[in-house]
Amino acid sequence: MTGPTRSTTPAKKVVVFDYGFGNVRSAERALARAGADVEITRDFDRAMNADGLLVPGVGAFSACMRGLKDARGEWIIGRRLSGGRPVLGICVGMQILFERGIEHGVETEGLDEWPGTVEPLDAPVVPHMGWNTVEAPADSQLFAGVGADERFYFVHSYAVRQWGLEVTNPAIRAPRVTWSTHGEPFVAAVENGALWATQFHPEKSGDAGAQLLTNWIGTL
Protein backbone atom coordinates (compact mmCIF):
# COMPACT_ATOMS: atom_id res chain seq x y z
CA MET A 1 0.00 0.00 0.00
CA THR A 2 1.33 3.37 -0.93
CA GLY A 3 1.28 6.35 1.40
CA PRO A 4 -0.70 9.56 0.91
CA THR A 5 0.21 11.65 -2.09
CA ARG A 6 1.84 14.95 -1.23
CA SER A 7 1.43 18.04 -3.32
CA THR A 8 4.48 18.97 -5.34
CA THR A 9 3.19 22.47 -6.05
CA PRO A 10 5.67 24.96 -4.59
CA ALA A 11 4.39 27.36 -1.95
CA LYS A 12 3.67 30.88 -3.12
CA LYS A 13 6.46 33.34 -2.34
CA VAL A 14 5.28 36.29 -0.26
CA VAL A 15 7.45 39.22 0.78
CA VAL A 16 6.53 41.19 3.89
CA PHE A 17 7.90 44.61 3.02
CA ASP A 18 10.13 45.77 5.86
CA TYR A 19 10.27 49.56 5.66
CA GLY A 20 10.36 50.11 9.42
CA PHE A 21 6.63 50.38 10.15
CA GLY A 22 4.61 47.28 10.92
CA ASN A 23 4.41 44.04 12.86
CA VAL A 24 6.47 42.13 10.33
CA ARG A 25 7.08 39.07 12.53
CA SER A 26 3.39 38.59 13.29
CA ALA A 27 2.61 38.88 9.60
CA GLU A 28 5.39 36.45 8.73
CA ARG A 29 4.10 33.82 11.15
CA ALA A 30 0.49 34.18 10.03
CA LEU A 31 1.37 33.91 6.34
CA ALA A 32 3.56 30.89 6.96
CA ARG A 33 0.71 29.17 8.82
CA ALA A 34 -1.51 29.93 5.82
CA GLY A 35 0.93 28.05 3.58
CA ALA A 36 3.11 30.76 2.05
CA ASP A 37 6.88 30.80 1.67
CA VAL A 38 7.54 34.07 3.49
CA GLU A 39 10.48 36.46 3.51
CA ILE A 40 10.85 39.76 5.38
CA THR A 41 12.88 42.19 3.31
CA ARG A 42 13.08 45.66 1.78
CA ASP A 43 15.19 44.43 -1.13
CA PHE A 44 13.80 45.92 -4.35
CA ASP A 45 14.25 42.89 -6.60
CA ARG A 46 12.91 40.39 -4.08
CA ALA A 47 9.86 42.53 -3.39
CA MET A 48 9.26 42.99 -7.10
CA ASN A 49 9.60 39.31 -7.98
CA ALA A 50 7.57 37.74 -5.17
CA ASP A 51 4.18 36.21 -5.98
CA GLY A 52 2.61 38.52 -3.38
CA LEU A 53 3.70 41.63 -1.49
CA LEU A 54 2.30 42.43 1.95
CA VAL A 55 2.66 46.03 3.11
CA PRO A 56 2.12 46.39 6.88
CA GLY A 57 1.88 49.67 8.74
CA VAL A 58 1.54 51.03 12.27
CA GLY A 59 1.85 54.53 13.68
CA ALA A 60 1.35 57.84 11.92
CA PHE A 61 0.36 58.15 8.27
CA SER A 62 3.08 60.74 7.58
CA ALA A 63 5.83 58.68 9.21
CA CYS A 64 4.80 55.57 7.28
CA MET A 65 4.88 57.50 4.02
CA ARG A 66 8.39 58.78 4.75
CA GLY A 67 9.59 55.29 5.62
CA LEU A 68 7.99 53.82 2.52
CA LYS A 69 9.61 56.38 0.22
CA ASP A 70 13.00 55.92 1.89
CA ALA A 71 12.73 52.22 1.00
CA ARG A 72 11.48 52.95 -2.56
CA GLY A 73 8.24 51.29 -1.57
CA GLU A 74 6.07 53.60 -3.66
CA TRP A 75 7.98 52.50 -6.78
CA ILE A 76 7.66 48.83 -5.88
CA ILE A 77 3.93 49.03 -5.22
CA GLY A 78 3.27 51.09 -8.33
CA ARG A 79 5.30 48.83 -10.62
CA ARG A 80 3.77 45.66 -9.21
CA LEU A 81 0.25 46.97 -9.70
CA SER A 82 0.99 48.20 -13.22
CA GLY A 83 1.88 44.59 -14.03
CA GLY A 84 -1.13 43.14 -12.21
CA ARG A 85 0.98 41.64 -9.42
CA PRO A 86 -0.83 41.27 -6.07
CA VAL A 87 -0.31 43.65 -3.16
CA LEU A 88 -2.01 43.44 0.26
CA GLY A 89 -1.97 46.45 2.60
CA ILE A 90 -2.73 46.12 6.32
CA CYS A 91 -3.76 48.85 8.80
CA VAL A 92 -1.76 52.00 7.98
CA GLY A 93 -0.45 49.95 5.05
CA MET A 94 -4.00 50.25 3.75
CA GLN A 95 -4.41 53.91 4.64
CA ILE A 96 -1.35 55.07 2.68
CA LEU A 97 -2.91 53.61 -0.49
CA PHE A 98 -5.44 56.44 -0.48
CA GLU A 99 -5.04 59.95 -1.83
CA ARG A 100 -4.19 61.72 1.42
CA GLY A 101 -4.16 61.52 5.20
CA ILE A 102 -4.99 64.26 7.70
CA GLU A 103 -3.56 64.02 11.22
CA HIS A 104 -3.63 66.86 13.75
CA GLY A 105 -4.57 69.24 10.95
CA VAL A 106 -1.55 68.25 8.84
CA GLU A 107 -2.23 66.85 5.37
CA THR A 108 0.11 64.26 3.88
CA GLU A 109 -0.03 62.87 0.35
CA GLY A 110 -0.59 59.14 0.08
CA LEU A 111 0.05 56.83 -2.85
CA ASP A 112 -3.23 57.83 -4.52
CA GLU A 113 -4.09 54.33 -5.70
CA TRP A 114 -7.63 55.13 -4.56
CA PRO A 115 -9.35 58.49 -4.09
CA GLY A 116 -10.22 59.29 -0.52
CA THR A 117 -9.00 60.89 2.68
CA VAL A 118 -7.88 59.19 5.87
CA GLU A 119 -9.41 61.26 8.68
CA PRO A 120 -9.95 61.03 12.45
CA LEU A 121 -12.78 58.72 13.45
CA ASP A 122 -15.80 60.51 14.90
CA ALA A 123 -16.55 58.15 17.77
CA PRO A 124 -17.16 58.39 21.54
CA VAL A 125 -14.04 56.31 22.23
CA VAL A 126 -10.85 56.62 20.19
CA PRO A 127 -8.76 54.71 19.32
CA HIS A 128 -10.96 51.96 18.00
CA MET A 129 -9.18 49.08 19.69
CA GLY A 130 -10.48 45.54 19.83
CA TRP A 131 -12.76 43.15 18.01
CA ASN A 132 -15.50 44.23 15.62
CA THR A 133 -17.72 42.78 12.91
CA VAL A 134 -17.65 43.83 9.26
CA GLU A 135 -20.14 43.97 6.39
CA ALA A 136 -18.57 42.35 3.34
CA PRO A 137 -20.11 42.10 -0.16
CA ALA A 138 -21.72 38.75 -0.89
CA ASP A 139 -19.28 38.11 -3.75
CA SER A 140 -16.14 39.01 -1.81
CA GLN A 141 -13.16 36.76 -2.54
CA LEU A 142 -11.30 37.99 0.51
CA PHE A 143 -14.07 36.98 2.93
CA ALA A 144 -15.01 33.71 1.21
CA GLY A 145 -15.74 31.07 3.82
CA VAL A 146 -15.93 33.62 6.65
CA GLY A 147 -19.18 33.86 8.62
CA ALA A 148 -21.07 37.16 8.77
CA ASP A 149 -20.78 37.26 12.57
CA GLU A 150 -16.99 36.82 12.66
CA ARG A 151 -14.98 39.55 14.36
CA PHE A 152 -11.65 41.08 13.39
CA TYR A 153 -9.04 42.92 15.42
CA PHE A 154 -8.77 46.68 14.91
CA VAL A 155 -6.34 49.26 16.33
CA HIS A 156 -6.73 52.70 14.76
CA SER A 157 -7.85 56.28 15.33
CA TYR A 158 -8.14 57.25 11.66
CA ALA A 159 -10.07 55.78 8.76
CA VAL A 160 -11.56 56.40 5.34
CA ARG A 161 -15.15 57.45 5.96
CA GLN A 162 -16.31 57.74 2.33
CA TRP A 163 -15.52 55.58 -0.69
CA GLY A 164 -15.02 57.72 -3.78
CA LEU A 165 -14.08 55.38 -6.65
CA GLU A 166 -16.98 54.59 -8.97
CA VAL A 167 -16.66 52.22 -11.94
CA THR A 168 -19.20 52.75 -14.72
CA ASN A 169 -17.71 50.46 -17.37
CA PRO A 170 -19.58 47.12 -17.07
CA ALA A 171 -16.55 45.30 -18.51
CA ILE A 172 -14.49 46.29 -15.45
CA ARG A 173 -15.10 44.59 -12.12
CA ALA A 174 -15.95 47.27 -9.58
CA PRO A 175 -13.99 47.30 -6.31
CA ARG A 176 -15.51 45.26 -3.49
CA VAL A 177 -15.64 47.45 -0.39
CA THR A 178 -16.20 46.08 3.11
CA TRP A 179 -17.42 48.35 5.91
CA SER A 180 -17.34 48.38 9.69
CA THR A 181 -18.75 50.81 12.25
CA HIS A 182 -17.21 52.50 15.26
CA GLY A 183 -19.19 55.63 15.99
CA GLU A 184 -19.67 55.93 12.23
CA PRO A 185 -19.19 53.67 9.19
CA PHE A 186 -15.67 53.40 7.75
CA VAL A 187 -13.90 51.35 5.10
CA ALA A 188 -12.67 48.10 6.65
CA ALA A 189 -11.34 46.36 3.52
CA VAL A 190 -11.06 46.78 -0.24
CA GLU A 191 -10.61 44.30 -3.10
CA ASN A 192 -9.67 46.07 -6.32
CA GLY A 193 -7.97 43.95 -8.96
CA ALA A 194 -4.45 43.10 -7.79
CA LEU A 195 -4.69 45.54 -4.86
CA TRP A 196 -6.37 44.35 -1.67
CA ALA A 197 -6.23 45.91 1.78
CA THR A 198 -7.65 45.68 5.30
CA GLN A 199 -7.93 48.29 8.04
CA PHE A 200 -7.95 45.51 10.66
CA HIS A 201 -5.12 43.10 11.39
CA PRO A 202 -5.85 39.66 9.87
CA GLU A 203 -2.64 38.33 11.41
CA LYS A 204 -4.13 39.04 14.86
CA SER A 205 -7.70 37.98 14.07
CA GLY A 206 -7.59 34.29 14.88
CA ASP A 207 -9.18 31.72 12.57
CA ALA A 208 -11.17 34.33 10.63
CA GLY A 209 -8.02 36.31 9.87
CA ALA A 210 -6.19 33.12 8.91
CA GLN A 211 -8.97 32.33 6.42
CA LEU A 212 -8.56 35.79 4.84
CA LEU A 213 -4.83 35.29 4.40
CA THR A 214 -5.45 31.83 2.95
CA ASN A 215 -7.93 33.35 0.51
CA TRP A 216 -5.42 36.00 -0.56
CA ILE A 217 -2.61 33.48 -1.01
CA GLY A 218 -4.99 31.36 -3.08
CA THR A 219 -5.25 34.19 -5.63
CA LEU A 220 -1.47 34.52 -6.15
UniProtKB/TrEMBL annotation:
GO terms for cellular component: cytoplasm. Its EC number is 4.3.2.10, 3.5.1.2. It is found in: Cytoplasm. GO terms for biological process: L-histidine biosynthetic process. Keywords: Amino-acid biosynthesis, Cytoplasm, Glutamine amidotransferase, Histidine biosynthesis, Hydrolase, Lyase. The active site is at C91 (nucleophile), H201, E203. It comes from the Bacteria. GO terms for molecular function: glutaminase activity; imidazoleglycerol-phosphate synthase activity; lyase activity. Pathway: Amino-acid biosynthesis; L-histidine biosynthesis; L-histidine from 5-phospho-alpha-D-ribose 1-diphosphate: step 5/9. InterPro entries: Class_I_gatase-like, GATASE, Imidazole-glycPsynth_HisH. It holds the Pfam family GATase. Heterodimer of HisH and HisF. IGPS catalyzes the conversion of PRFAR and glutamine to IGP, AICAR and glutamate. The HisH subunit catalyzes the hydrolysis of glutamine to glutamate and ammonia as part of the synthesis of IGP and AICAR. The resulting ammonia molecule is channeled to the active site of HisF. This is Imidazole glycerol phosphate synthase subunit HisH. It comes from Streptomyces liangshanensis.
